[in-house]
Amino acid sequence: MKDRITPEFLRAIPKSDLHLHLDGSLRLTTLIELAREAKVKLPSFSESGLRKLVFKETYKDLPDYLHGFMYTCAVLSDLENLSRAAQELIEDNAAEGVRYIEVRFAPQLHVTSTTSVRDVVRAVAAGLAAGAKAHNASKAVASGQDLPFHFGMILCAMRRFKKGMSPYFADMLRLMEHAPKDEIYAAASLELARAGVELAQEGLPVVGFDLAGEEAGYPPADHWKAYQYAHNHFMRKTVHAGEAYGPESIWQAITQCHANRIGHGTFLFAEDMIQDPKVENRKKYVEDLANYLANQRIGLEVCVTSNLQTIPSLTSLAKHPVRRMLDHGLSVSLCTDNRLISNTTVTREMELVCEHAKVTLDELKRLVIAGFKGAFFPGSFAEKRAFVGAVVARYDALERRHLPAAKS
Predict the structure, then answer these.
(1) CA 122/CA 205 separation, integer angstroms
(2) What pLDDT, on a 0 to 100 scale, did the predictor assign at position 407?
(3) Measuring CA to CA, which residue among 213, 151, 214 is closest to residue 20?
(4) Mean pLDDT value of segment 64-79
(5) Nearest to 157 by CA among 88, 229, 264
(6) Choosing from 88, 102, 215, 243, which is the catalytic residue?
């Protein structure tokens, strides 16, 4: 690793994860246990078997990658299971030095005939709170030798859905059966935005609104009303954009959805993917877009392992644009996307980027701090600033301990 950045140092430093899907990040042992209890049939009931058949290191295409969600979502329709998965997610992150996460999930996907969106969000919040409480009650945190754990929740609307995905979606499609599909999808996202604002006003740590799902053919502008509602009520916004579609989707997320951050942004520099015939100078378009993102400090939630697993054209990390993003001064945070599906951790993402993108020690520090600064922190700005300050102090102390000669 460049500048003698060691794996031990990366494990020790405080980290964040701003793009983390709950249903893609279960413990494999928990999935097996819950599947047995709920009589959900898995391709295998051993960890090795599931790693071989479902949750692999590499996938042949996006459908292959998404296949695993069929099993994780099947066990997450129970509120207790949701709480448990959320608590264990905090525990797993805390164990590898992560001290802030934003857990995103689609509450409408987990609704049953006896539960509501609000029930689902409250269950996840309870689990996250329990996990953070255990860490924050430790002697190390009390003595100031370790940082407290903070978290937020991001509610995901779906770009499109089918009735078989959940009773909520089935009811929505039935009640609006004569409406165009894009209007039905937009109505569901607006309803979720309203629920998110209401829950945040109740004091739950709902810190952001997101749009996930199939990108091509389902533009973020279709969900303008939901994003405008979130925006009008001071909720922060992120959008999955530039992951399967070109730079125009990123610009649309900013201008139509008021995005504070962009999920992935992998095709930010893909001039050949621009479709608007009015764009005559494509190179200038992507440069202007990159400069706008940098100047406005609109963060990019970069998930390199996930991108390599789902984008066929990315045959190696050398082709990933993260190096170019850093060279443009963009606010980049490294994220896992799905800890189980992608078989990764924040530490592993950092190791990969440090090695393959030739990240310097100064760049690593900026990457780490960008994650905390770009957070949709659930407290006040003063509280967030104090937390970021504590993170910087902790990082500096660990750098002196682990890399005493790094800058000599």
Answers:
(1) 10
(2) 55
(3) 151
(4) 95
(5) 229
(6) 243
The DSSP-derived string for 228-242 is HHHHHTT-EEEEEES
- Between the CA of residue 72 and those of 56, 110, 306, what are the distances in Å? 15, 11, 17
Q: Is pLDDT at 4 greater than 90 in this prediction?
A: no
- Residue holding tokens 């539960």? 115
DSSP 288-318: HHHHHHHHHT-EEEE-HHHHHHH-TT--SGG
Contacting residues for 68 by C-beta, under 8 A, at least 6 apart: 24, 54, 55, 340, 341
Helix (H, G, I), strand (E, B) or coil at 139: helix
Listing from the earlier edge strand, what are the strands of the sheet with 261-264?
A: 15-21, 98-105, 150-158, 206-212, 236-241, 261-264, 299-302, 332-334
Q: Is pLDDT at 49 greater than 80 in this prediction?
A: yes
Q: Which residues contact 206 (CB under 8 A, 6 or more apart)?
A: 121, 152, 153, 154, 155, 196, 197, 199, 200, 235
Residue 408 in this model has a pLDDT that exceeds 70: no
DSSP 337: B
Unique residue bearing structure tokens 């996938």: 59
Check: CB of residue 336 under 8 Å from CB of residue 20: yes
Predicted confidence band at 242 (pLDDT cuts at 50, 70, 90)? confident
> Residue 234 pLDDT more than 70?
yes
DSSP classification of residue 3:
G
The dihedral over CA atoms of 396, 398, 400, 404, expressed in degrees to the nearest 10, equals -130
Do 319 and 279 touch, CB atoms closer than 8 A?
no
Could you tell me the two tokens for 379?
A: 């407290």
What is the sign of the dihedral through the CA atoms of 318, 297, 204 and 202?
negative
Amino acid at 378: P
Cα–Cα distance, 270 to 324 (Å, whole number): 12
Closest CA to 96 of 359, 333, 351: 351
Closest CA to 124 of 72, 165, 76, 167: 76
Which three-class secondary structure state does DSSP give residue 105? strand
287 is catalytic: no
